[in-house]
């Protein structure tokens, strides 16, 4: 681990935040999770259960239901839903240490920019998250696979590099990249291909991908996303099609976050996934009928299961 432990806070400690916060805590960094009261109570009593592919442990760390718990943190892992970005940013603003790095571990491509508008005096960096996790119960995180991060550098600061070194030492493969925008778009396209279909069917990736006609639908989604990305001037790293096929192999039992939200009666992030492609497509004059259809169907289901 790093020579000097980082004081870490996780704002919005759901499955993603619990995984990365828990990994840092296991490596000796003082970590505080800001989570829902039922998780806070369970963690206070028994610690965070991290059930992963390589270990199953009760990890002891701090937990709070209050945004003020980010006070004094060197690193804040910002893991709230995209729908809550501005509100959660405003909640932590007065409590952030001047030197704190706020690292956005969120779906979508524009959260860091939206958060910078709320936190203009603080360092905010985007990150691309490749991990399959779920909350299996209060204080119980289940990890299904992967765990890599790609972090955006902060101009004039070594904060991103320091965070990356701490994460690497904690067992989290992490890169600092100048093309995080492209990597975020690649992840967005993966989410657009899988999330809505998994959510509508309420099936994991492995079952979803072999459904009759589903590969063709996913291919149409990806083609629309690539057309929008080109119109936006985005440079995509690697082979998007290969990455999409790899998802089925690397996490076949994973339900998309959108599917998990619908199953729990929560609002989804579909407006920031397929919905974002629809909006950017409209702005760029690119037709996105398949993304629009998936977005509209998820929104329709959302009104049935989620409170207004």
Protein described:
This protein has 308 residues and is an alpha/beta fold. The protein folds into two domains: 171 residues, NAD(P)-binding Rossmann-like Domain (Rossmann fold); 125 residues, N-(1-d-carboxylethyl)-l-norvaline Dehydrogenase, domain 2. 46% of the residues lie in helices and 19% in strands. The chain has twelve helices and ten strands. The longest helix is centred in the middle third of the chain and has 22 residues. It is globular and about 50 Å long. The model has no long low-confidence stretch (mean pLDDT 95).
CATH class category name of the largest domain: Alpha Beta
Give the CATH architecture of the largest domain. 3-Layer(aba) Sandwich
**Total number of β-strand segments?**
10
The CATH homology group name of the largest domain:
NAD(P)-binding Rossmann-like Domain
User: What characterizes the major β-sheet?
Assistant: 10 strands, mixed
Compressed to H and E, one letter per element, the order equals: EHEHEEEEHEHEEHEHHHHHHH
- Overall helicity: 40-55%
Number of helices: 12
How many distinct folded domains? 2
Low-confidence stretches: none
Envelope shape: globular
Give the helix/strand class: alpha/beta
Rg measurement, Å: 19 Å
State the distance separating the first and last CA atoms: 45 Å
> If you average the pLDDT, what whole number results?
95
